[in-house]
Amino acid sequence: MTANTSAPTAPDRIATTLAGFTHRLRLGEVPAEVSLRARHLMLDAIGCALAARREDFAVRFEKAVHAMPGANVPAACTAGAIGFARRLPLRDAVLLNGVLTHGLDYDDTHMAGVLHLSVSVLPSLFSLAAANDASGADMLAAYIAGLETGARIASVAKSGFHGQGFHPTGVVGAFASALAVGRLLGLDADALVAAQGIALSLASGSLQFIEDGSWTKRIHPGSAANAGLTAATFAQQGIPAPDAPYEGRYGLFRSYLDATRQAQIDMALGTAGIGADGRASAWELDNIAVKPFPMCHFVHASADAAITLHRNGLDVAKIRSVEVAVPAGVVQSVCEPLAAKQRPTSDYEAKFSLPYAVASGLLRGRLGLKELEPAAFGDATVRALMERVHYVEDPASTFPRHYTGEVRVEMEDGSTKVQRESVNRGHAERPLTNDEVREKFMDNATLWFPRSHAEAVCEQVLSLDRLASVRTLESLLATDPSMPAPATASAAAMH
Q1: Structure confidence at residue 19 (pLDDT)
Q2: Of 3.30.1960.10, 3.20.20.100, 1.10.4100.10, 3.40.50.880, which CATH number belongs to 13-282?
Q3: Which end of the chain has less Cβ packing within 10 Å, N or C?
């Protein structure tokens, strides 16, 4: 046999750097404000799941996962789903919790990466930490590692995944989850590189749902979370894996982006702010935005502009036309095909409809969960207004750094009213405060739990760094209010 004399492949700098960062991360070295914000982001995701619990899609997905072969296993081998009393095999619970946290499109977004990280990282960590009786501090450190690494990986593509038809939440979320789970399992740096290599073969998520409002997007976070769980577990067992998942010939960016989009990527963003010693000098977690609206983040600035115009006084009956200036990068998701976007037939189509977001804002001055009910987006007045909403690409937009929006309303008398939102509300430069996040959580959580129960959940999540066992949090969340509520954590559960 002829010896292989080819030169060894150079280490994948992104994979090795992120593995080193994840391995050496110490919760005590994370700035206090970053740790606190991470707990609020976790709280926000859980609140979104509880708001979703009463929705038809939540009930149907729960029924579907229980119909999977092997769903009836001993209680000792099961995990909890948020807001449900019936327990599931761990991987099925991870999938369902991903559906619940992301299903309303109300969860956080990393702006530059254009992806939802909490919902791809939290489900795997929550179930695994509870199953392994891990401490809240261990889960929190792994969660921070997952958010920090996933944000950097996605940022490299500069929003290119969307243009190629991939949902980065499902794709990049698999790598973020793999690193987070690997951290919770105590993998060393070499094994964390292997986990990323395995995740490369599991990452997926198609944007085809945008064309018909189907439900497959809701599967992506849980699928990514399970991919990460699989990848980290296989790496723990020494399964050989590619060592160049990002920079290799068939690595993430060469496989998921065409030549034009590959030319636009910046590999340096994959390790930005992480030193040679594995320590972070900047935290991407600060750039994760909490949503003020349960809609695709791409419509938020335009919705806020429309709401401002409404509050400033506007006779909707006398509107001749509405032009909305949006970033070119969001057109495929929320603007086209325009005729379909002007006539959403489901809540999910409404979530991705720029004409509806603007029309609702102009007409009602609000855009909340009630505006996603059929009676709201099917209202004849709002439909007539949607027909007058059109878009243009905004050359002045700073997307993807900001999700900008400008609404220009032309009245029948020829006058024009204009409102521009250069920085979308919730962005790091215009963030929702921790108090506002807590208020949003309580509004969402009390849609399913009694207020006292919601407050107990809030207290445990915000005290996660002192929680002795994640099982106490799972016992609060994996329950149905129609059944006796479990007792809140005692002081003995804290340390």
Answers
A1: 98
A2: 1.10.4100.10
A3: N
